[in-house]
Specification:
By secondary structure, the chain is mainly α. The chain has helices at 3-10, 16-41, 44-59, 68-75, 79-91, 107-113, 117-129; strands spanning 63-65, 95-98, 101-104. The longest helix has 26 residues, at 16-41.
């Protein structure tokens, strides 16, 4: 999209679209900051549970494609760590992981395995943008 077209779509400060864009930007900044703190302070298993929950929220279903390599990159962890964590979550009956497809089996259990960062991000996103 060209800048001029975008500027016309956004409209003036105070327009409805401008407000939505500003709130979405704030939600993204909150998420980014929380991820930085989370990656520094929390264990890989809790970060993985958070990331899986956030992904499920975005795709809107319990099954989605996800490679261990990509998940390792997103978590800032080694692939061997992600393999061990995915295996742990699978043994707990929270997910099923098969050929690059994640199936969330127990969302409540996954929320319990996640750190508080998932709740912080979800609550702030809902406050700014409304329910998903």
């Amino acid at each position: 999209m060209e800048a001029e077209v975008f500027e016309q779509a956004v409209g003036a400060v105070g327009s409805d679209f401008y407000g939505v864009l500003a709130r979405a930007t704030q939600a993204w900044c909150t998420q980014l900051g929380q991820h930085a703190v989370c990656n520094r302070l929390h264990r890989v298993v809790a970060r993985c549970a958070r990331w899986l929950l956030q992904t499920q929220d975005r795709v809107g279903r319990a099954e989605f494609p996800l490679t261990q390599e990509f998940l390792a990159t997103m978590l800032g962890a080694g692939r061997s760590n992600v393999t061990a964590v995915a295996s742990q979550l699978q043994q707990q009956g929270l997910i099923r992981y098969q050929r690059g497809i994640i199936h969330v089996l127990d969302r409540g259990g996954l929320e319990a395995a996640s750190c508080e960062c998932y709740g912080v991000i979800a609550q702030e996103t809902e406050r700014l943008l409304g329910p998903a």
